[in-house]
Design goal:
about 150 residues; alpha+beta; Pnp Oxidase, Chain A; seven-stranded antiparallel sheet; 4 helices; about 30% helix; about 25% strand
Amino acid sequence: MPSIEGEYEPSTWGWVRDQVETYERTGGREANTLGNTGLPIIIITTRGNKSGKVRKTPLMRVEHGGEYALVASMGGAPKHPVWYRNLTSDPAAVMVQDGPEPFLADVRELDGDEKAVWWERAVSAFPPYAEYQQRTERVIPVFVARRREA
């Protein structure tokens, strides 16, 4: 099974910690939606850009053709989520888990027409993203994650 080396530091947010633990323990059979919305999530694993520790974050599942959008919305907050900095500082240290088997991924931040296409996919999968963008002055970043070739 692929992994990102280093010490794992669970989220300080209890619900995130609990969701990640349950999702991983059950191979994605449990804790695989956002609360009681029924909308699916994935888990991304990154390396902390300051601490160097392994971090795990549930994100909305936006999949197309085996690739995944990673939307740095943070609910429309004025700042990017911490995991955004983790991705931009070490884009080679990313793992995606959608179901029982995590995989190492190559990620890149999108812009222009490609971002617009993935943004529409993201809003279709999770309509509140549109509201989140209206709520903030920052442009919400979108990455695409693709399974790394062996």
